[in-house]
Amino acid sequence: MEGTYILNSQLSSCRLVSTLVVVVFAFFADPLVAQSKSTIVLGTIESELEQKQVAIDLGNTPKALGSVVAKAIGIHGGLRLASSQQSRYSASFSSQGENIIKAVLSTGTPKRAVSSYSCNESTVQQSIAKACDRLVKEILGIPGFFGGKICFLSNLTGSKEIFVADALMTSARPQTSFGKITFNASWGKQGQGIYFTSNRKVFNNVYFLNLASRKISTIASYRGSNLRAVQNPRSNQLALILSTSGNPEVWLASSSDSKPSRLTRNRSNESGPSWSPDGRRLLVTSDSRGKPQIYEVSVSSGNLTRISTNISSHCTEPSWNPRNPNKFAFTAAIAGGFQVCEFDFSLRKTRILTKGSSHGMQPCWASDGRHLYFTERTVTGKTQIKILDTELEGAKPVALHGPSFGNCSQLSFYYPN
């Protein structure tokens, strides 16, 4: 494996609670009895946000495991940590030997065990993550995403290189060490490797890195710029952005080792392809009308159909929701900056997801279709990966790492089956 850096991150979370203190003045009928004053503490009152979350405590979970589980719960949004007296569920995680994590879920008054399960993955970290996913499924009835993997860019080593981390970014390892310009990293659909673009051999070419063998294969090295490859989630097909015909166009290849054929034929610039969950539709960014907008491109004819997001004259970087084909996230220029938005085909409406003086960009969905990763760039140019629960009203983005990870950006997500 190239590179020797191993990164670790810790996240602490806090609850938004308020304490109601009632001052009671007691007046007694007997004038000889002095007026008295007493203070009654009624305890904590849950915030409006907390009322939408399921309270859970970690029971007898040891600290070594609890820190990772607490980070997962703090990020999710549908759950929140609470004391054993205030929680609805108690989840005790324990180590049962090499890489085996057992979880026991209890509820009721007093709490009694209602479910127990074990996860045995290739690493303890992955076993904990899968156990947390099962916890989400048991309590909320929806899939989790903690067992996923991410790849992203970081300048930690001096130049932008590809790193791979777990979904919570508790640790990360570099996968390249070219010392060149590397960008547009994207997982293969089976998670066996990563497509990326680099000028490691002078010109921008598209490559594929096999993570098991460490072999790097050339996918596209045509005349002009070879800018991006994204694999269809349902087949071996690739969507590529190549400028060999003059301007950046969408090309399709039936597999990584097949010669691509040109799909779009126009004078505009196309970029950022994103497949629909069923692999039958494709979104791209195009400046065919002068300024970049989101378009759906027909995979049979190459015709472009503009998506009327009605939010900005500058919309880029579409990311199709992997579980809800009616939604995609994208980046839009708003009020002098960039923010992440979500468009709903069924409602024909756009929702702004991020705000503030920092820029939000490069959105990428987690496998649950609920959580959205994105890059936050400050006015000074520093970048950081954040994640947002898009379904919990009032939820705020959570930073996944600190300065020790370097400036991170351009994330891609994969969940192993």
Q: Could you give the topology of this structure?
A:
Elements: E1 7-8, E2 17-26, E3 36-46, E4 54-57, H1 63-76, E5 79-81, E6 89-95, E7 100-107, E8 112-120, H2 124-140, E9 149-154, E10 161-166, E11 171-174, E12 182-187, E13 193-201, E14 203-210, E15 216-220, E16 226-231, E17 238-242, E18 249-253, E19 261-262, E20 270-275, E21 282-286, E22 293-297, E23 304-306, E24 315-320, E25 327-334, E26 337-344, E27 349-352, E28 359-365, E29 371-377, E30 383-389, E31 398-399, E32 408-414
Parallel strand pairs: 4-5, 4-6
Antiparallel strand pairs: 1-11, 2-3, 6-7, 7-8, 9-10, 9-32, 10-11, 12-13, 13-14, 14-15, 16-17, 17-18, 18-19, 20-21, 21-22, 22-23, 24-25, 25-26, 26-27, 28-29, 29-30, 30-31
Helix pairs in contact: 1-2
What do you see in this structure?
With 417 residues, this protein is mostly beta strands. The chain folds into 2 domains: 93 residues; 266 residues, TolB, C-terminal domain (Neuraminidase), CATH 2.120.10.30. The protein is built from 2 helices and 32 strands. Strand 10 and strand 11 form a beta hairpin. Helix 1 crosses helix 2. The longest helix has 17 residues. The radius of gyration is 25 Å and the shape is globular.
